Amino acid sequence: MDKGRIRPGHVIFYIAFTIYVAAGILLYTEWAFAEHGDINSFGMLLKALRYLVYALCAVKLIFLTDLKQYHFIPLIISLVIILLALVTSRDTAFIFQWLIIVSFFDVPYEKILKVAFFTSLIILLITVLCALLGVINDYVRVEGERTRHFLGFSWATYASIILFFIILEYIAMNKGKLNIVETIVLAALCLWLFKMTDARLAFAMEMLELAFFFVFGRLFGRRKESKKQAYHILLAVPWLVAIFSFFLHYLYNPNVGLWVRLNKLLSSRLMYGNAAIEKYGIHILGQPIEWVGFSIRETLRGDYNFVDCSYLRELLRSGALFLILVLVIMTVIMKCAIDKGDFHLVWIMAFIAAFGITEMWLCASLAVDPFLACITIWGTKHIWGKERYIPYYQALKLRAVNNYKKA
Question: How many Cα atoms sit within 13 Å of 330 on the Cβ side?
Answer without folding.
Answer: 28
